[in-house]
Amino acid sequence: MSTAPPIFTATSAYSLGFVTAVGIAAYVAAKSLLPKNASWQDRVTFIWLAFDGIIHYTLEGSFVYYSLFGKQVITSSGPMAQMWKEYALADSRWGTADPTIVSLELLTVFGVGTMCFYVLKQLVQRDPARHYWIVVLSTSEIYGGWMTFCPEWLTGSPSLDTSNALYLWVYLVFMNIIWVFVPLWLMWDSYGHIANSLRWAQARAESKKN
Question: What is the dihedral of CA 25, 168, 67, 158, to 10 degrees?
């Protein structure tokens, strides 16, 4: 009697370990580069954007590499290709160079990834202009997530495998929903800074008139 292949494999562990290592690196970078009197909001923002930028440039950058010029993840080899083959078990579009996914990832890697590191530079320099770019970056993240899954939902999710907890709750839900809730919080925080500054500037201008 044949047995079903294991769901959680060495590649699963390697993939989750890689993501964890990126998170630790982002935390260490925040401890090293931010001033000691930085607010907890700035520290959380730095850790997230460092994590986000590294993921975009390394993990998603490798997907773009494996998906252009006639290549596909499922026919590629190497550690990063194996990680994407693992994720493609939950969403097969990532294994076959789906044009919508590749188009979104091109913008994500070269646009959003670059913005992450630009905002990190602004955080270190304590430049308040970062709040504008945080709103732009966060909007891009949320839009990218919507356009990744909405077309799939509208067609009955033929590419998604939700048959087990690892694929559904870890790969499809957790690994994507954090790119919704964290950007929403960042937008809310930056909106507060921008709105308060504009209100203060308006009140000051009006007081000078009087």
Answer: -170
